[in-house]
Amino acid sequence: MLGYHVPDPDEAMLVSGAKVKDNAPFRVIIGRGTWVVPLFRKVSYLSLAMFEAEIKERCVTKQAIQLDVRAVIAFKVANDTVSIVNAAQRFLSEQEKEMSVLTGRIFSGHLRSIVGSMTVEEIIRERQKLADEVLIASKVEMGNIGLWVDSFQIQSIDDGNLGYINALAAPHNAAVQRDAQIAQAQAAQRAAEAEQESLRRQAEYQRETLILKARYQRDIDKANSEAAQSGPLAQAIAMQEVLTAQAEQARKEAELREQQLQYEVVKPALAEAERVRILAEAEADRTRIQAEAAASNNRIALDQLLIEQLPEIVKQAAAGLSNANLTVLNGPDGVSELVNGMVGQGLTVFNSLQKALSNNVEDNAG
Q1: Residues 270 and 358 in one domain
Q2: Phi and psi of 86, rounded to 5°?
């Protein structure tokens, strides 16, 4: 029956029964499908997936010491057409079993050969070198049968309770134990030092804490003492300020009283004294004028008239001075100057009147 066949992603489809280029026994198809004519064509499949083979081989070292070596091989059919054809011609019937057996035999042979060329010390110390040499030696044969090796890992090496490997490891183990003991002792010492340092810091912290508490308590006691004394002290300061303010107020009141006395007592007294002095001087001037008038025959009547009027003029001037709201800047001297001015003006008026009357008398006489 005519059909269309498609291989799985990890498969190679083998179509036989037709002529193939390059004289290949069958046509290899990977990753695509094809039409297959029944009866005249046959379709087979070869897995391209990964396979694993485990080996356990007893090998003899260069020193004639037997070692049991266990290893694992990861392999698969290579992806090229030649490798697929080679693998299919050998393993198509029972692919997984036959490939694993043959692969294990190939690697076991190369493993025995390479271990026989090495000492136990080299094998233990350079295990990866052993694996690489076995893998390189096996790849040629594996390639001839169409297989590709992905990895070869040595899992264990055992001398069968001979004790040789343990003896080799003893110095290292002793060194490791010694280093571990030293490290443990150093760690214990560091822990003890850290604990001592922690205790020292705790003691220092406690000491500093006590000092700070003592200082704090001292500051509190000092503050409480100052607070206890602050009431009376503040009251005394306030009283002192009150007394100072009262003294300042008294001083200002004294100044005001002094100014009041100046206006109410001193200045009126000075004005009265000045008035009396002016009257006395006026009286003296009146007497003098009367004497001069008596000495003059032609002006007796005139002078007599003026002399009689002069006290009244002076009196009116004094009365005006007493009632006047005058500001005297230089005390009694200022008052004297004022009175002298008034008297001078009175005399000037008197002389003017006398002259006018004299002229009037002369005119009348003429």
Answers
A1: yes
A2: -65, -45
